[in-house]
Amino acid sequence: MNRCGWAESNPLDTRYHDEEWGVPVHDDRLLFEMFILEGAQAGLSWTTILKKREAYRRAFDDFDAKKIAQYSDEKIEQLTADAGIVRHKLKVKAAIVNARCFLAVQKEYGSFDAYIWSFVGGSSINNAWESVSDLPASSAESIEMSKSLKKKGFKFVGPTICYAYMQAVGMVNDHIVTCFRHSAVKKIQK
């Protein structure tokens, strides 16, 4: 069975690749979870974040944006002392700011899903990369997304983070064409 090369280094990466990466997500809670995790990943490996994902769910109230938006300075101190997550204070504070911005977007657009998927016209972009080395770090869509998110007050939303987010939530199908998931993901897109 052929996979994208990055997914073969450990069982956690393989499971994530085989079950989640590139699958279109339209559930606001999961879209928010991936948004926070992608921001936390900046400068780190995705494997590091996957290893900490359950601790993130516990520490961040299962990514309940309403609860996170209300976090106090005391809660920030608790989070930055939690070895189960990335204890970078700016990233922790960004999660809180992003929760508030997320709620504002939901109010403005009816859902975060409606807003975020608008950058790809509401449907996934299917790429046809031959090799993992062909995958770009950003795209015109991720650049536009980044600009819009920044205007709305979001943090840790550069074009590269936005592109990784697009890959994670299935806005783009970046499985290489020889990967068994490329055609499988294509079949489940709306």
Main attributes of the structure:
mainly alpha; 56% helix; two-stranded parallel ribbon; 10 helices; 190 residues
Layout: helices, strands, pairs:
Layout: H1 11-19, H2 28-41, H3 46-59, H4 65-68, H5 73-80, H6 89-109, H7 112-116, E1 125-126, H8 140-151, H9 159-168, E2 172-173, H10 180-188
Parallel strand pairs: 1-2
Q: What does this entry look like structurally?
A:
- This protein is mainly alpha-helical and 190 residues long.
- The chain has helices at 11-19, 28-41, 46-59, 65-68, 73-80, 89-109, 112-116, 140-151, 159-168, 180-188; strands spanning 125-126, 172-173.
- A two-stranded parallel ribbon has the order 1-2.
- Helix 2 (28-41) packs across helix 3 (46-59), helix 2 packs antiparallel against helix 6 (89-109) and helix 8 crosses helix 9 (159-168).
- 35% of the residues are buried.
- The mean pLDDT is 97.
